[in-house]
Amino acid sequence: MSLELSLRKFDAKKLKSPAIAMRVEVSDHKGEGPLQRHSQGQLVLALKGGVTCEVANSIWMVPPTCAVWVPGGMMHSIRATANARICFLFVKPGAAALPVECCTLSISPLIRELIQHLADLTQEFTIDSPAGRLVGVLLEQLVLMPIERLHLPMPQDRRIRKIAEMLSEDPADRSTFPTWASRVAMNERSLSRLMHRETGLSFGRWRRQLHLIVALRELSAGATVQEVSGALGYESVTAFITMFKKALGKPPGKYFADMQQSRW
């Protein structure tokens, strides 16, 4: 079943327990869920492959051992690489003291296993049942998880949005800042001020954050460091590794090895 069809068929309005989970297997083609909004909060957990969420004018990456929390009432959409496996946890409003803003949460092995266990249940359960008590433990643990800063702010001004969309389509484009200013008919100073006002970042930092988000998504889906480096337009693999290490404190190989180890 496609990601879009799975999300459209799932009726979270019938949620009786404080939380309920579902698992989705994406086909051998990239999947994109519908633009949606529901009253329940939604936790998006990537078990395999690369998954991103677009929420509140930002793109949020779902890396290994993390999940994106989308509070209830927020319009959002979800994209996944081919053959991705995703777990969704829907949480009733007020069931847990979770963040009121969208964020990326670190996820412990215990929480990961509890969510997958809930996704395997085929019958309704009450709060005082064994499954209901597990939900209580899950939510208690979830509110303790630290927040990670893995998102890309998306500008709303049409000129900056045009640049963002072009770079998102072709992240290997290494055009200079003056060239981008010329493409949107702005002088460099005005574009710089507008970029910072719209995103809180300079153009260079925004593009590096885009590269980091793309790199995490593609590496999570199984691409090699060499492939990702080339796709992002880096002159050498070393230059790409340097960017990655500066952003996340570790080179890609160690980052994903540590993520894999922390699952167990």
Low-pLDDT segments, ≥5 res: none
Which class do the helix and strand fractions yield?
alpha+beta
Overall shape: it is globular
CATH architecture grouping of the largest domain: Sandwich
The top-level CATH class of the largest domain is: Mainly Beta
CATH topology of the largest domain: Jelly Rolls
Summarize the SSE layout with pairings.
Layout: H1 3-9, E1 19-25, E2 31-32, E3 41-48, E4 51-55, E5 58-62, E6 66-70, E7 76-80, E8 85-91, E9 103-106, H2 109-120, H3 130-142, E10 147-148, E11 151-153, H4 158-169, H5 177-183, H6 188-199, H7 203-220, H8 225-231, H9 237-248, H10 252-262
Helix pairs in contact: 2-3, 8-9
Task: Describe this entry's structure for a reader.
This is Helix-turn-helix domain-containing protein. By secondary structure, this protein is of the alpha+beta class. The protein folds into 2 domains: 146 residues, Jelly Rolls, CATH 2.60.120.280; 108 residues, Homeodomain-like (Arc Repressor Mutant, subunit A, Orthogonal Bundle), CATH 1.10.10. It is 42% helix and 20% strand. The longest helix is centred in the last third of the chain and has 18 residues. The protein is globular and about 65 Å long.
